[in-house]
């Protein structure tokens, strides 16, 4: 049986909205990821048989099959194909799944799975027009922030719990930066355009001066009177890119490349589009069952911090050891460049597993309009 292995995983540092990456075209954000994945692993661009790019807002600078445009801009031979996939927040995690499925089907031996999003240059939701009558007559469509509020109410999560969790995310991210935990996974970007010059190598969104008191002073963003969801306990609007080099285990052995992990289970689920973000709960249960593992066997968990209420509800249902969850901070502190986040979480998951000497890693993300995606990897 073919095993799909992860040979490498890298990312850019994450830029905050209108921050250091605001002048960088999204194609140019992802180009160095592709180039580095090839060059640092001693393979040729010609060896890559497909490139799968996750992107959530495929319009304007991110339109036109950005995957193909990135591959051409990276200097890959024209014979190397590419395509783009949109599963909203889970886009580049879906890119990883698609790439793995291509290898499992023996359609290719080497595939790059990656993602990019420039939310500064291509605003979130700018690709959505009016909803159709048939959709609106069938479903209730609400903004994600209202779903986050409903989750907090359903699971009796207090504002204090949300702000405490968010503060901890910043504290863990600061520690990871200061102690160099991200250095192996971040590649430097040379910012030569606009007003930014020099190397960009540090996640920009972490608020070193934040406190629980400051977080508690923020106004509710969606329900001004009784709401608990604020900008401080939600993910940040961000820019960034990330990518993984995947191979069949046979091809890695043939090339004398030591694989770092293998993908052992992957699932997607649908969920009620009103509650919307609770899919992480059934997705976690389903992927654990598929891998024939128990939660206690998972050594590191990366769950996307779309909103703190999502994590707290998941915690109450799954009863995971929270010391294993987002140990280097999450999207509340680091940021959430939609199409890049899946590959970013996978990159951090792999490096954290290696640094901790763990065996199994779980990655799970909630997705807009009621879906979720989950992956389990095993460190080799």
Could you characterize what this model shows?
The protein is α+β, with helices and mostly antiparallel strands and 380 residues long. It is built from 12 helices and 12 strands. It has a domain at 4-122 and 237-255: Peroxisomal Thiolase, Chain A, domain 1 (3-Layer(aba) Sandwich). Strand 6 and strand 7 form a beta hairpin. The two termini are 17 Å apart. The mean pLDDT is 97.
List the helices and strands and how they pair.
Blueprint: E1 4-11, E2 15-16, H1 26-39, E3 50-54, H2 66-73, E4 82-85, H3 91-104, E5 110-118, H4 133-138, H5 144-154, H6 159-178, E6 189-191, E7 198-200, H7 212-216, E8 238-248, H8 249-254, E9 261-270, H9 280-291, E10 300-303, H10 308-318, H11 331-334, H12 338-356, E11 360-367, E12 371-379
Family: Belongs to the thiolase-like superfamily. Thiolase family.
Active site: 89 (acyl-thioester intermediate), 336 (proton acceptor), 366 (proton acceptor)
Domain Thiolase C-terminal: 258-379
